[in-house]
């Protein structure tokens, strides 16, 4: 199968939906997401907008992922560690590699790595 690059919102949605189906089934990450997110359809649309904005430099996303992750860490007794981000990144890379190849696909990996590092640091900063 010849893989295409990530080009459209539909491509981003496929990536996000496929990725989060893996996250939800993961024994370590699943509980954080499944206990926090109540409306998955809405959340997948929000995450699609986030990644579409990030990859295609559109300014449609208006949420605050830093605050959201800090709240989740607090709700789970400050138990998020670098291991969780490592699993998240491995699943993200795996999903991209299964579905896409090209410049945008590689950029999605780079942006995820930077974002994971940044959110990880912000979570620990917030613990004070």
TrEMBL record:
Kindly give the SUPFAM superfamilies that the UniProt entry links to this protein.
Globin-like
**Which CDD domains is this protein grouped with?**
TrHb3_P
- Name of the protein described by the UniProt record: Group III truncated hemoglobin
Q: Which domain of life is it from?
A: Bacteria
């Amino acid at each position: 199968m010849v893989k295409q690059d990530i080009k459209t919102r539909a491509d981003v949605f496929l990536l996000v939906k496929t990725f989060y189906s893996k996250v939800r089934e993961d024994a370590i990450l699943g509980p954080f997401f499944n206990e926090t997110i109540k409306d998955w359809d809405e959340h997948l649309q929000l995450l699609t907008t986030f990644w579409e904005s990030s990859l295609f430099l559109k300014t449609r996303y208006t949420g605050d992922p830093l605050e959201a992750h800090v709240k989740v860490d607090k709700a789970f007794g400050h138990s998020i560690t670098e291991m969780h981000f490592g699993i998240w990144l491995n699943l993200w890379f795996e999903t991209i590699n299964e579905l896409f190849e090209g410049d945008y696909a590689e950029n999605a990996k780079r942006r995820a790595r930077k974002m994971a590092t940044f959110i990880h640091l912000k979570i620990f900063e917030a613990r004070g």
